[in-house]
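User: Here's a structure from my thesis project, written as structure tokens. My advisor, Dr. K., wants to see whether a designed sequence matches the one we expressed. Can you design one independently, without my sequence as a hint?
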């Protein structure tokens, strides 16, 4: 990286995480001086000369922070849990000091209205479940003692029950309108999801003062309910 060592790099993903992190940064006195929706830049300067933002895919944020490509990042709990499970070393080197309480939603099981999930569970049937969140789904059904065949998808999970690919899906639900539009119903909540601040542990040692300052600023800006 060409930036001087003392500079701090924050990894964000475009979309809701970027949008909902901006007010937290602003409360910390930091404003991003370029708009990612009109700019094609992936490195965005801020009003603080020693702080810059890098834009990466949501699922790449933990990798950037863990490997030191960024000092800090903001990632959904869904992304963190899947990342930790995918890599043998889990979340080694990643410090998670704060629940930022932004980009909130829930992980749930959903199915077609005409699929009787409860009775399939009671009867001990094997249920075919399509999801992008294989690790969260596996743990959930194992805890409940439900037999499932997991089908890994990378998007448009709602389509799976409609085409007969699966009986149910595990996906994030926020307003519920995506499920409704596809005539699916939420049959079981799995866990509440929000975004977390993550910090590279080595960076925290090397740049202790500025990073501590940022964590404290974020902490006082967290939305309260
Ligand atoms: O979209 P892209 O492929 O670029 O990447 P991404 O989906 O990983 O990023 P993004 O920005 O969509 O999501 C980033 C993070 O936001 C996720 O990791 C979650 O922690 C959080 N988040 C909060 C959500 C939602 N709410 C959400 N509603 N992520 C996705 N959704 C999707 C959901 O998967 C479903 O398709 O929105 C749809 C449901 O929304 P409702 O309002 O119709 O219920
Ligand atoms: Mg998305």
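Assistant: Designed independently from the structure alone:
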């Amino acid at each position: 990286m060409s930036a001087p060592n003392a500079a701090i790099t924050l990894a964000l993903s475009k979309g809701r995480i970027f949008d909902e992190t901006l007010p937290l940064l602003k409360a910390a006195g930091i404003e991003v001086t370029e708009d990612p929706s009109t700019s094609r830049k992936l490195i965005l300067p801020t009003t603080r000369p020693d702080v810059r933002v890098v834009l990466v895919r949501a699922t790449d944020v933990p990798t950037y922070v863990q490997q030191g490509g960024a000092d800090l990042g903001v990632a959904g709990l869904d992304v963190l849990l899947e990342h930790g499970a995918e890599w043998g070393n889990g979340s080694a080197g990643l410090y998670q000091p704060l629940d930022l309480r932004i980009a909130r939603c829930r992980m749930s099981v959903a199915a077609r209205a005409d699929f009787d999930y409860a009775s399939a569970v009671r009867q001990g049937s094997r249920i075919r479940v399509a999801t992008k969140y294989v690790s969260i789904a596996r743990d959930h059904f194992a805890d409940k003692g439900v037999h499932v065949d997991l089908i890994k998808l990378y998007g448009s999970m709602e389509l799976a029950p409609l085409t007969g690919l699966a009986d149910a899906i595990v996906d994030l639900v926020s307003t519920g309108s995506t499920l409704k539009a596809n005539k699916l119903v939420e049959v079981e909540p799995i866990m509440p999801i929000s975004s977390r601040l993550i910090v590279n542990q080595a960076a925290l040692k090397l740049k202790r003062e500025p990073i501590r300052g940022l964590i404290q600023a974020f902490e006082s800006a967290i939305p309260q309910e």
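When you compare it with your expressed construct, this may help: Residues 26 and 32 are 9 Å apart (CA to CA).
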